[in-house]
Amino acid sequence: MNAVTHDPKRFRPLAWLGCILLAIACAAVVGWMALAIYFDLAPGPTWLRGALGALVAVAALLAALLVRRRRWVVVGIAMAFVVVLVTWLSLKPSHARDWQADVATLPYAEVRGDHLIFHNVRNADYRTETDYTMRLEDRDLDLSKIRALDLFLIHWGSPLIAHTIMSWAFDDGQHLAISIETRKQKGKSYSAVRGFFRQYELFYVVADERDVVRLRTNYRGEDVYLYRMDVPPANARLLLLNYVRAINRLRDHPEWYNALTENCTTAIKRIAGPYQTRSWWSWKLFLNGHLDELAYDIGAIDHSMPFSELKAKSYVNPRAKSADADPQFSARIRDGLPRMSP
């Protein structure tokens, strides 16, 4: 019987590929550890946190260059990662911080049969983006009068990334908007990189559209699109009640915001849960600047015209600027939009 021989040259490319992938994974882990130490774990001023984060990266690089047995380098990085990850996961969110005025007060709701009473609904009077008179109101809504569910998609930078706001329309002309956002402390601004770490608590903005939409169209200069969702009123009601449960739970149990796993779009996916009638799993949930395109592809928004035409007609900035503080703001921004009833 002939002996089976293996040509080592056949396996050399696979070995090199494995080494390259392992090196990339190690570099990614070291990079994450350095940033986690800088943003979340290290105490003291910025320069000290930066130095400690850099120290981790430099130590890993020196180990890779000087230690002959690379497997020990990998083991060392893995052990350090476990220590940093466990410490990072142990960080607890809190409601007891010095919050910015627009997110200082948590909303909550009571359900009494068909009546939904929302407390601390935001309806601020803006003069500029940062100069405003904060108003918090109570809203008594009749769940049996839910007529429709609308999606706002807001572009504020890269076309790949957007912010989403859900809004419920009622037969009596009321609209209730809910925006899932970061709860920022005084002196802090939003950073996309910081959003991947434990820098912000989660916050549900429950608001009048004159607040949460007009802020973006009229004062921040963001591009806002509005779509009517193809959702039966009964499902829209169930979705709103699921939001209520999440909002009330957050009041008692703070949560971290995360730009990847718990953001304005993935949280909607989680909350919608059993009330979805279509499959929404797509990479567009994470690069959510194309979320309206995904909704179009699965028939969740108007499908009577090409998507490019629908998107152009759904742009509400000119209407919002014209309506400004008009009490009929919600009706005016919907006037003439596809599938929007008066």
Topology summary:
Layout: H1 8-41, H2 46-66, H3 70-89, E1 108-112, E2 115-122, E3 125-126, E4 132-133, E5 136-142, E6 146-155, E7 163-170, E8 175-183, E9 201-207, H4 209-212, H5 214-219, E10 223-228, H6 233-252, H7 266-272, H8 291-297, H9 307-313, H10 317-323, H11 329-334
Antiparallel strand pairs: 1-2, 2-5, 3-4, 6-7, 6-10, 7-8, 8-9
Helix pairs in contact: 1-2, 1-3
Biggest β-sheet strands, sense, barrel: 5 strands, antiparallel
Can you tell me the residue ranges where pLDDT is under 50 for at least 5 consecutive residues? none
Give the overall silhouette.
Answer: globular
Instruction: Please give the domain count.
Output: 2
Major β-sheet strand ordering: 9-8-7-6-10
**What is the count of helical runs?**
11
End-to-end gap: 86 Å
Assembly category: single chain
What proportion of the residues is helical, as a percent range? 40-55%
Describe this protein's structure.
By secondary structure, this protein is α+β, with helices and mostly antiparallel strands. It has two domains: 8-89; 101-334, no CATH class. It is built from eleven helices and ten strands. It has helices spanning 8-41, 46-66, 70-89, 209-212, 214-219, 233-252, 266-272, 291-297, 307-313, 317-323, 329-334, and strands at residues 108-112, 115-122, 125-126, 132-133, 136-142, 146-155, 163-170, 175-183, 201-207, 223-228. The chain has a five-stranded antiparallel sheet with strand order 9-8-7-6-10. Helix 1 (8-41) packs antiparallel against helix 2 and helix 1 (8-41) runs parallel beside helix 3 (70-89). The mean pLDDT is 89.
